[in-house]
Design goal:
heterodimer; A: mainly alpha; B: mainly alpha; two-stranded antiparallel sheet
């Protein structure tokens, strides 16, 4: 419930921030409908109005409810953050190592994160998934997958 | 004449057959896997469309949609776990039939009724759409905006109670706001681009859809699995083959099938409502009107037939507003609209005169997919059950890689993968805290249409709201929209009032 309150509060703060940004937009025509910020401001006002009772409701619930999940839940968060970091590294590596190798590394780490432990089958499955997807999309469907730099780029032409 | 050309074009084209089989099979598989909705299945098929022409791409999409809506029933019948939300009522009697040793029969009824419901709705789509197009051609810009508002309010109003409705409304506005990023269509002034040229043309919604629908779900699954310390795999059933019901059996439940087909079609047409509501309503109607209503929930064929007919009948219904007005009524049809827009085609009444071959090819493709469902569902049920034994790390990793390919492949741009990742996180939180992702996507897809039509309408009437709004059609649409939005509050007030009186 704390997370929900944080999420709703972030939406609220972002809405106010964007409303302030919208007031600084260049205005050529003074008629409201012709202003570029007319429509975004209507949406942002609705967002703010809708978000207030949501935040209030969550805060009220939070006050009345017993404390939830302790240290155990923090571990779950670590797994999720690990998966997101894995995805970030994968995207960075796409332009360096190319799709196949990045996908293999990503699939391997992702399998371990999802499964919660390392199994000997993970590397084989990761290789199969990354190789299969590369061949299907890169070779069969001729989709331009990232090739990476220097040697990785040259090697990628052998496959897709 | 156009429909005959389309029928010949689709039926004589081997690639179309291949794509229908692939889409249908993929859809059934995605639908069968818990946590993958029909919308997510269609999203995951997006990368397969990038190298296809528009007709083939859309045939693949609609086949996946049909398969995805049916696929949920496999898990519902075999394991009492609805693969998709719309298969929930199927568990009531489907699983009871499995416990009685009639799993094959339950699957057979589900396959046949899904195919019948789907095929019926496609025929109705072909018959109703040209009539609706004539009405839609008389729509002014403000009417279009009002119809789109109606769609958004309907999806926002779907929540259970005022709080959930507010959450859906917030999700819709988030989508509408995202649609405002980029150059303003009327003044050409950049909005919320923060100086980045990448955002001048607006935020691309395909990576957002992929990230929010698919990526968010994988993160959610990782979390659930960690909390529950890995549930035991349930998927060990062997040797189940779907047994199609005999004509006599089908005839004995004919009224349930007919009623459910109409309910599914009607609810499917309504924006915001969809397969899930259709299947629940039809189950309720079938139960109330059946001679053996007391046996519902103990494993009767009608209990499987009604929801399965209705949820597949809603697919054709949901395509009607998309094809005739260009306004999707659900998350899945919003993704399909995305495919239209990738090819620079705006569905709507004009599409029927400018590109009838495309429209009728989609309709024919959907019809063939529904008919093939009988064969593929029967042959494939056994194989699909085997697929369900795959550990989630294989499925989750494949989904994430498909998401990356789908985002990147659209424009060969790594920035799109970053957007996908960002919306993976947002989608995760939205799912976790019960904000509707379908509402966000609909807001995003309809945002520009609403804004541009509303402003255009006001410019035409010299900025007079009175002149723009005071038409019977516009006023009726606005009235319905307001009713939908305030209905949960009226209902909540009514309940409180009754309690007070007691």
């Amino acid at each position: 419930m704390v997370g929900e309150l944080i999420f709703e509060s972030i939406v609220f703060i972002v809405s106010i921030f964007l409303y302030v940004v919208s007031t600084q937009m260049q205005i050529i025509n003074p008629i409201p409908v012709m202003r570029p910020n007319w429509w975004p401001q209507i949406i942002l006002i609705i967002m703010i109005i809708v978000d207030i009772p949501l935040i209030y409701g969550t805060a009220k619930k939070l006050k009345n409810s017993p404390k939830e999940r302790g240290i155990g839940y923090a571990k779950v968060w670590l797994w999720l953050i690990a998966e997101i970091i894995n995805m970030v590294i994968f995207i960075i590596l796409l332009n360096i190592l190319g799709f196949l190798i990045s996908a293999f590394l990503f699939a391997l780490i992702s399998s371990i994160i999802i499964d919660g432990k390392f199994r000997t089958v993970h590397p084989f499955v990761s290789l199969l998934v990354s190789f299969g997807l590369t061949l299907f999309f890169g070779s069969f469907l001729s989709l331009a997958l990232p090739r990476g730099l220097s040697i990785f780029r040259d090697l990628s032409f052998w496959l897709y | 004449m156009d429909i005959y050309i389309a029928i010949y074009g689709v039926l004589s084209d081997p690639l179309s057959w291949l794509l229908i089989i692939f889409g249908l099979g993929g859809g059934i598989l995605f639908g069968a896997l818990p946590g993958i909705s029909a919308a997510m299945g269609v999203v995951l098929m997006l990368p397969f469309t990038y190298k296809l022409d528009v007709i083939h791409a859309l045939i693949l999409m609609v086949s996946t949609y049909c398969g995805g809506v049916f696929g949920g029933s496999i898990m519902a019948i075999m394991f009492n776990i609805p693969g998709t939300p719309e298969a929930t009522p199927t568990t009531f009697d489907g699983y009871q039939m499995t416990l009685k040793g009639e799993a094959g029969k339950a699957l057979g009824v589900a396959i046949t009724c899904s195919a019948l419901g789907g095929a019926f709705s496609v025929v109705m789509l072909a018959l109703i759409s040209p009539l609706l197009v004539k009405v839609a051609l008389s729509f002014g810009p403000v009417d279009y905006a009002a119809v789109a508002f109606l769609g958004l309010s309907a999806i926002a109003g779907l929540g259970h109670g005022p709080r959930e409705q507010l959450k859906n409304l917030l999700a819709v506005t988030m989508g509408l706001l995202l649609a405002t990023v980029g150059l303003d269509a009327i003044t050409g002034i950049p909005r919320f681009t923060f100086g980045s040229p990448a955002f001048l043309s607006g935020i691309k919604f395909i990576p957002i859809m992929i990230g929010a629908f698919a990526g968010g779900e994988v993160l959610r699954q990782i979390e659930e699995r960690r909390i529950q310390k890995e549930k035991k795999q349930l998927f060990f059933v062997k040797g189940v083959t779907a047994k199609l019901p005999s004509l006599r059996e089908l005839f004995s439940i004919k009224w349930s099938i007919i009623k459910s087909a109409f309910i599914g079609l009607g609810i499917g047409i309504l924006p915001g409502a969809g397969a899930t509501i259709a299947s629940f309503v039809s189950y309720g109607v079938a139960k109330r009107s059946s001679k053996q209503s007391d046996k519902f929930g103990t494993g009767v064929m009608e209990g499987v037939a009604a929801p399965e007919t209705a949820n597949n009948a809603s697919t054709g219904g949901a395509m009607i507003p998309l094809l005739t007005l260009g306004i999707p009524g659900s998350g899945t049809t919003a993704v399909i609209l995305g495919v239209f827009l990738i090819y620079g085609i705006q569905p709507g009444p004009l599409l029927f005169s400018t590109n009838p071959k495309l429209v009728y090819s989609i309709i024919v493709g959907m019809f063939v997919a529904n008919i093939l469902m009988i064969f593929l569902g029967r042959i494939g049920a056994k194989a699909f059950v085997q697929f369900l034994r795959l550990p989630y790390y294989v499925i989750g990793t494949t989904i994430l890689l498909l998401s990356a390919i789908g985002s990147y492949g659209l424009n060969n741009d790594i920035d799109d993968v970053w957007i996908c990742l960002a919306f993976m996180g947002i989608g995760y939180f939205m799912k976790k805290y019960k904000f509707s992702i379908a509402a966000l996507v609909l807001g995003l897809v309809l945002g520009k249409l609403i804004e541009n039509n509303l402003r255009r309408g006001l410019i035409i009437t010299h900025f007079s709201w009175q002149k723009a709004m005071f038409h019977p059609l516009t006023l009726s649409l606005i009235f319905i929209t307001i009713i939908i939005l305030i209905w949960p509050y009226i209902k909540a007030y009514g309940v409180r009032f009754k309690r007070g009186a007691k």
